Amino acid sequence: MKTMYSTQVTSKGGMYGHISSEDGALETDVYMPTGTTPDKQKGTTPEQLFAASYAACLEGTIHHIAKLNNVDINDTEVSANIKAVQVEKGDLRFALDMEVTIPEVDKKKAQKLLDEAYRNCPLTKATSGQMEVNVHLK
Predict the structure, then answer these.
(1) Which residues are bridge partners to 86 per DSSP?
(2) At residue 41, does pLDDT exceed 90?
(3) What residue numbers bound the domain in which 99 lies?
(4) Chain-centre distance of CA 127, in angstroms?
(5) Looking at the structure, do residues 30 and 60 belong to the same domain, yes or no?
(6) Which of 45, 8, 38 is nearest to 26 (CA)?
(7) Does the predicted model carry a pTM greater than 0.85?
(8) Predicted confidence band at 39 (pLDDT cuts at 50, 70, 90)?
(9) Please, are residues 129 and 91 in contact by the beta-carbon 8 Å criterion?
(10) Is 57 helix (H, G, I), strand (E, B) or coil?
(11) Residue 69 maps to which CATH number?
């Protein structure tokens, strides 16, 4: 396999820690949400980071697939709503709902692009069978 890109992110401090990327582009505090009261912590959560990664990865893949198929797209948007769900006591899993907007493209063609992009998205491949993911064209 040929490596196309590589980066490193380091997490220190555990449940109320700090993450940083080697290039300094990502630098923030992290915390674990309680799920019972509104969180007043500063920073972000692993859930938010995962949802952001999946949304960005899927949107980028949509653009890639559109380019391969000579389809001009603009102003696409992917919103990811992530939930940490308890499967068994002490065992949490993610469930993800994503809404995708591909304006100015016929609905049938947009759905075809989305389906192909979802199948080819690296995060879809990485999580296949490991979590519930629902993707809807808006």
Answers:
(1) 92
(2) no
(3) 46-137
(4) 11
(5) no
(6) 8
(7) yes
(8) low
(9) no
(10) helix
(11) 3.30.300.20
